Amino acid sequence: MLFCTALILPVCDARGQGGMSDRTGTVAKISGANQQMLDKLKVERERGITVKAQTVSMLHRQNDKTFLLNLIDTPGHVDFSWEVARSLAACQGALLLIDASQGVQAQTISVGMLALEKNITIIPVLNKIDLPAADPDRVAAQIESTFGIGADEILTASAKTGVGVDKILRAIVDRIPPPTGDVDAELKALLFDSSYDRYRGVISLLSIQSGRIRKGEKIFLHHTQKKYDVVDIGVLHPEETPTGMLQAGQVGYLACNMKNSNEAQIGDTVFRVGESKHDPLPGFQPTKAMVFAGVYPIDSNDFPKLEESIKRLTLTDRSVTIQRESSTALGQGCRLGFLGTLHMDVFRQRLEDEYDQQILITYPTVPFKIIDNKGKEVIISNPSDFPDPADFSGKIQEVQEPMVKATIILPHEYLGGMMELCSNHRAENIEHSYLDTSGDQPRVLMTTRMPLAEIVTDFFDLLKKTTSGFASFDYEDIGYQRSDMVRINFLLNGRPIDSLSIVVHRSNALHVGRVWTKKLREVVPKQQFEVAIQAAIGKQVLARETLSAFRKDVTAGLYGGHYERKLKVLEKQKAGKKLMKRIGNIELPQEAFYDMLRTNKPSNKA
Predict the structure, then answer these.
(1) Is 75 annotated as a binding-site member?
(2) Which residues form the Tr-type G domain (predicted)?
(3) What letter does residue 350 receive in the DSSP assignment?
(4) Is 128 annotated as a binding residue?
């Protein structure tokens, strides 16, 4: 049996995953509306996107030979690029699926270039050619100009009707080189993914680079140097199918009674106990959180349950970072790090769907690099840890914020509005070129440098509004850059609300302060005394709103008598209000926090 491992990069394509699995007999032919075989999560089926890479092995008969094809279905969105990066380490080739009706998107360029950097074979496939809006010739020209791939190498197919699927299977066998590992050599396997089973512990996904591994053998992992007994091993076909052995060229699962998920480090190398050569395989870059947010339970008594749910969910999403934090207003919670805003939203929905959690998420923020006068660098992800203005003159040398290289593809008619939008969000070095000039609406490729902090606010919403939903957007991290960032504190009668502190660029601080104080005035409950709502940078007040006092009629129960009797009660109320204003502690209820964070963002003027 011959082996071949390929990667599916489904860019802007979420329909008909059963095409190749139907043709190879891996699953029975699918009927009905839902044909998302490898999209197993509820959030994937509801949104029509892939958020978790899935592996499947299938047998294909060609030229009187049987080939074992190991395919990994990966996400296409930038927030899940780490899923693509670690899957590339286990593959020899990639299928680049492109919607024939939408053409090359920003995500297409991102994942395509990532595959080219790994020097693996790319087979471009134009899917959905059965749609009335499909234009394969135009899209093929875009691929040729973007990636330098000739039109004769581009395949066309329809996973829904089955047209062209046989050509894809033949191209995988003919174009993608088979694995080169020696079956008789010592065991060396790459751990590229993992999941958790409550009965068997951690289930590891392995790509066997050399040698073979059998059930009952003893293995150890290079990173932890811990030893385990193999209790179950097999391939995903598409469900777990025990085989008793995996050998060089295969991709499969392994269960070894590993109870702690931290022991299964993504990118680690698996060896057999007793063999001599223990040089680890070259790994890949670990995940780096780019967006942080605080997660709190609606009911503070539910925190232990929420924390346990987060830990269980991160067993299947290893790219999320966890750190405990507490707030005087919201109680105990966790500060989580995500790869992007979509990743954060998907994680929130999975917590609600799979673990029935009712949560409150603070607005997203990005990590900032603080450099002191001695040159020491500290990464800060929580706005409450950001230094005060007084520290910049004596302790802090500079603040740096993360920058990204943004790629936007849009119709020509929206170019002017898009350039203005990028400029309003502090974009630099805006450049553009034409992907094609055919048709009534030529498509433009824009590239620019932008602060990541501008993207995680309202940029996506404004981008869709500016381009009527026809633009695609992608970005990649390009490091840190010096910037004039400040922390805005929001105060009620002089007392700061720690959970609402935000870090923004100084040029946008006044606008954000005014917007947020007006919103706070709407959600803060009225008191029996006047409440001052302020936005401030250190001791400098940027904006102020005043919440008028709630009037209580203390004379309502007084009937008859002299006027001085009522006046005495009113004077007593007046003195009480002064005392309450001086020592009164205003608590912002969680309902107000929920309303504030759900409907408001630290937006720019646009």
Answers:
(1) yes
(2) 1-180
(3) H
(4) yes
CA-nearest of 263, 209, 206, 243 to 55 is: 206
Q: Is 448 inside a domain boundary? A: yes
Cα distances (Å, whole numbers) of residue 67 to 7, 73, 111: 16, 19, 27
Was 118 annotated as part of a binding site?
no
Alpha-carbon gap, residue 272 to 91, rounded angstroms:
22
User: Is 458 annotated in some ligand binding site?
Assistant: no
- The CA distance from 98 to 337, in Å, is 30
C-alpha torsion sign, points 16, 177, 78, 72:
positive
Residue 183 in domain: no
Render 447-490 in DSSP notation, one character per residue.
Answer: EEEEEHHHIIIIIHHHHHHHTTT--EEEEEEEEEEE--EEEEEE
Are the C-beta atoms of residues 70 and 173 closer than 8 Å to each other?
A: no
Report d(CA 110, CA 477) in Å as an integer.
12
Q: Which residues pair with 481 in a beta bridge?
A: 401
DSSP per-residue letters across 516-552 = HHHHHHHHSPP-SS-EEEEEEETTEEEEEEEEPPPP-
Cα 457 vs. chain centroid, distance in angstroms?
A: 14
42 shares a domain with 145? yes
- Using CB atoms within 10 A of its CB, is residue 332 exposed (0-12), middle (13-18) or buried (19+)? middle
pTM, rounded to two decimals: 0.73
List, for residues 164-215, the tens digit of each pLDDT value.
Answer: 888 888 888 888 888 887 888 888 888 877 877 778 888 888 888 888 899 9
Interacting residues of 385 by C-beta distance below 8 A, sequence separation 6+:
none
Q: How many domains does the chain have?
A: 5
- 527 and 386 share a domain? no
**73 and 165 together in one domain:** yes
Determine the straight-line distance between the first and last CA of the chain, rounded to whole angstroms.
60
Burial class (CB in 10 A: 0-12, 13-18, 19+), 239: exposed
The two tokens of residue 461 are 């919403």
Tell me whether residue 478 is annotated as binding. Answer: no
Asked if 239 and 355 sit in the same domain, the reply is: no
405 occurs within a structural domain: yes
* Residue 69: CATH number of its domain: 3.40.50.300
Taking the C-alpha atoms of residue 112 and residue 603, their distance in angstroms, rounded to an integer, is 32
Instruction: List the CATH number of the domain containing 551.
Output: 3.30.70.2570
Evaluate if residue 584 carries a pLDDT over 70.
no
Same domain, 254 and 322: no
Q: Which domain holds residue 400?
A: 382-482
CB 195 within 8 A of CB 203: yes
Q: Is 238 labelled a binding residue?
A: no
Would the annotation count 277 as a binding residue?
no
129 marked as binding residue: yes
76 annotated ligand-binding residue:
yes
**Exposed, middle or buried: residue 222 (CB in 10 Å: 0-12, 13-18, 19+)?**
middle
Cis before 238 (ω within 30): yes
Over the stretch 261-280, which tens digit does the pLDDT of each residue have?
778 877 788 898 888 767 78
**Strand 2-11 and strand 65-73: pairing?**
parallel
Name the residue type at position 117: E
CA 510 remoteness from chain centre? 30
Asked if residue 104 and residue 60 are part of one domain, the reply reads yes
Residues 114 and 33 in one domain: yes
DSSP helix/strand/coil, 262: helix
Is 88 in contact with 113 (CB distance < 8 Å)?
no
